[in-house]
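User: Hi! I'm working on a homework problem where we have to compare a predicted structure to a textbook description. Could you give me the structure for the chain below?
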Amino acid sequence: MAGLKTIYNNQGVPITDFKSTAVWSSLLNDIGEAVFYVATNGVKCKRNYLEFGNYVVLQHDKLPDWVGIIDTPRVWHSGYVEVHAFEVPFLLKYRLLPLGLTIIGTPGDKFKSLINYANNSFDTLLRVGDVSSGGSNVSETFTLDVFSCIKDLAENNDYEWVCSPQFDSIGTLTVKIDFAK
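Assistant: Happy to help. Predicted structure tokens:
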């Protein structure tokens, strides 16, 4: 799909815009993927732009903005490189929780705590957005990675999450993650 694509570094600072064909998906309570193409002889085919861990925002005039993080695979073809990106909750698979972490609260309270915990070691750029406040105030022990815990929390409580890019007044990217029934 045609439209503007912007690449941001891992602090959310924009580093380049480019036009490219891209195909992307968003999955409810899971991780969507995008694929876009960059000419190998073009000025945008540079390591600092296509670096693993950089963020990409894909815009289209008829679709919601999509945000993801560049990761493997990166496939080199004759004349172009195929770049893959995954929705930002992908990073939560690499945020391990301490064994036996117990959180007391509603599903929304637990979700907020898990996202905040994920940002403790290195900022994922995820920011808690709209969160439903319903549900029982109970204790729950989490032992896996943050992504698996949020996925289980959503499934067990009939919640859904969705991510969307947000920009401050100077264009720095953060990613709002909503969690609601």
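For your comparison, note the following. The first helix runs from residue 47 to 50. The CA atoms of residues 97 and 117 lie 8 Å apart. Good luck with the assignment!
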